[in-house]
Specification:
- The complex is a heterodimer of chains A (174) and B (235).
- Chain A contains 3 helices and 11 strands; from the N terminus they run αβββββββααββββ.
- Chain A has 174 residues and is mainly beta.
- In chain A, the strands form 2 sheets. In chain A, strands 4-3-6-7-8-9-1-5 form an 8-stranded mixed sheet, with no helix packed on it. Chain A has a two-stranded parallel sheet with strand order 2-10.
- In chain A, strand 3 (61-68) and strand 4 (73-79) form a beta hairpin.
- Chain B has 235 residues and is mainly beta.
- Chain B has a single domain (2-231), classed as Aromatic compound dioxygenase (Protocatechuate 3,4-Dioxygenase, subunit A), CATH 2.60.130.
- Chain B is built from 3 helices and 14 strands.
- Chain B has helices spanning 41-44, 188-191, 195-198, and strands at 2-6, 35-36, 75-84, 94-99, 124-128, 134-140, 145-147, 153-155, 158-163, 172-177, 204-205, 216-219, 222-224, 227-231.
- Chain B starts with a strand and ends with a strand.
- Classes of the chains: A mainly beta (174), B mainly beta (235).
Chain lengths: 174, 235
């Protein structure tokens, strides 16, 4: 059987896929609080922005995060455009190394102007040794690996996504 | 022993990232080659939802947000089956939908099209597929609406769909169109799909699903990425 073709999420997904975040009167099934309670001792915050090929911040992208490190299976979803700086924000547990892979999160990115979603991963800047052994990171040309590594800044990790340009984020065919 | 490997996107039916006729792709489509990733636990699993997540009226957009009456427009039923490329049904998968109202107006705050909002129609819904992979929504047929992509551009009538499937390789967001819509021939979003794949996005009128004196039925099936079994390399 042939795959159903993908089509863009478009500009108007907010009230269907993240209604509470965008203040529509409909219950959200999924949000950005992947850890409960938020002050769990292993909780981390991930923040970032999404940029287009002209360096303009994208205010209508939808980001999903899936993590399965063998201990926790967590899923979150957040759209850009509601945070004052148009960031995405997730609260989750820091994943652990598993099966020879460094701690990482799987990321799925949707937006108007993208006919198929993009897959990437978030690794962590304070996991230098694990990152150096990770077979997925080692597949990536050395000069592009930094696009997959979230930078620790105090209690949060910053991970910006660049759709195009010199710093284009590495996207995966999974 | 064998190992399951999920298929990649089938480029014979899937749209390219960059399709300049759809202008928003120009600065948003990735330009560097994708890196092929060997599937691991992260890719071979995904979020699991249950019926407990979904409200009793979530699948019925004609009722789930009414304020003071019934929504205006033509009631329709959209139903079908979710399968993978191997032909196996996918039960218990979350389907979410959103759409314009019968006048072609989205509730979204950014939509400035001068067509009326309907106080009794939000245009969002969701359901889970049953044990055989089947799903069913009740809704109002969406209207066409103008957009700014080019002069006199109109999107064909469509409903947006989001599906999860069995793992994150199965993730699909797409749009369902209606048979015989003359706008399909002019729509750069629809036409970005290679010709071989286009008919897969057009629902079929379904008299057997039509409820007498109540609503017309349309059928729309989904095929998510399937898998191959390959022998484990043993040393």
């Amino acid at each position: 059987m042939l795959q159903t073709p993908s089509q863009t999420v478009g500009p108007y997904f907010a009230y269907g896929l993240a209604p509470e975040q965008y203040l529509y009167d409909f219950k959200s099934l999924v949000g950005n609080e992947m850890v409960n309670p938020l002050d769990h001792e292993d909780a981390i915050t991930i923040v970032g922005k999404v940029f287009d090929g002209q360096g303009v911040m994208i205010p209508d992208a939808m980001i999903e995060i899936w993590q399965n490190d063998g201990q926790h299976q967590l899923f979150g979803r957040f759209g850009t455009g509601t945070d004052v700086e148009s960031r995405f924000v997730f609260y989750t547990l820091k994943p652990v190394a598993f099966n020879g892979q460094a701690p990482h999160l799987s990321v799925i990115i949707f937006m108007r102007g993208q006919q198929i979603h993009s897959y990437t991963r978030i690794y962590f800047s304070d996991e230098v040794e694990e990152n150096s052994k990770d077979e997925v990171l080692n597949l990536v040309p050395e000069g592009r690996r930094h696009t997959l590594i979230a930078k620790k800044k105090g209690s949060t990790y910053e991970f910006n996504i660049y759709m195009q340009g010199d710093n284009e984020t590495v996207f995966f065919d999974i | 022993m064998s190992q399951i490997i999920y298929n990649s996107f089938d480029r014979e039916v899937q749209p390219a990232y960059l399709t300049p006729e759809y202008k928003s792709t120009i600065y948003r489509a990735p330009q560097k080659p994708l890196v092929l990733l060997k599937q691991s636990l992260s890719e071979l699993t995904g979020p699991v939802f249950g019926d407990f997540n979904v409200g009793p009226l979530d699948h019925d957009l004609t009722k789930n947000t009414v304020k003071n009456g019934e929504p205006i427009g033509e009631r329709i039923i959209v139903h079908g089956k979710v399968m993978n490329e191997n032909g196996l049904p996918i039960p218990n998968t979350l389907i979410e939908i959103w759409q314009a109202n019968s006048a072609g107006r989205y509730v979204h705050k950014v939509d400035q099209h001068e067509a009326p909002l309907d106080p009794n129609f939000l245009g969002a819904g969701r359901c889970m597929t049953d044990t055989n992979g089947n799903y069913k929504f009740y809704t109002i047929k969406p209207g066409a609406y103008p957009w700014g992509n080019h002069y006199n551009a109109w999107r064909p009538n469509h409903i947006h769909f989001s599906l999860f499937g069995v793992n994150i390789t199965n993730r699909l967001v797409t749009q369902m169109y209606f048979p015989g819509d003359p706008l399909l021939a002019y729509d750069p979003v629809f036409l970005s799909v290679p010709e071989k794949g286009r008919e897969l996005l057009v629902s079929k009128f379904d008299l057997s699903a039509t409820e007498p004196s109540f609503a017309l039925g349309y059928r729309f099936d989904f095929v998510l990425r399937g898998y191959k079994q390959t022998p484990f390399e043993t040393l």
